[in-house]
Design a protein that fits this description.
Blueprint lengths: L11 H11 L4 H23 L11 H6 L1 H27 L1
């Protein structure tokens, strides 16, 4: 992921408060983290206000064909198999 330099004008009092929390060298990281949280919050708010259903049946033919119980069982089995593979790999690595 690339980065860009952005010129941001902050009120002096706010900059001083941020510096108290993070130190002057931590200001950029603090602002990036704050902006990321706000972007997630705004996106979530937009999603929650959208009246379009999140679940589109056409996109999930596998559930309709197998039935929801079979689909859940299958997903759990796949997760279990992945966990076994990870554990096996960890054991081999530690041997």
């Amino acid at each position: 992921m690339g980065v860009i330099r952005a010129h941001v004008i902050l009120p002096a009092k706010l900059a001083a408060e941020i510096d108290k929390l993070t130190g002057p060298r931590g200001r950029s990281a603090f602002l990036v983290e704050s902006a990321e949280k706000e972007v997630r919050r705004v996106k979530l708010a937009a999603f929650l206000e959208d009246t379009t259903p999140a679940w589109q049946q056409e996109a999930h033919d596998d559930v309709r064909e197998a039935g929801s119980s079979a689909h859940v069982r299958n997903q759990r089995q796949r997760k279990s198999n992945r966990q076994l593979m990870v554990e096996s790999w960890a054991e081999e690595r530690n041997s």
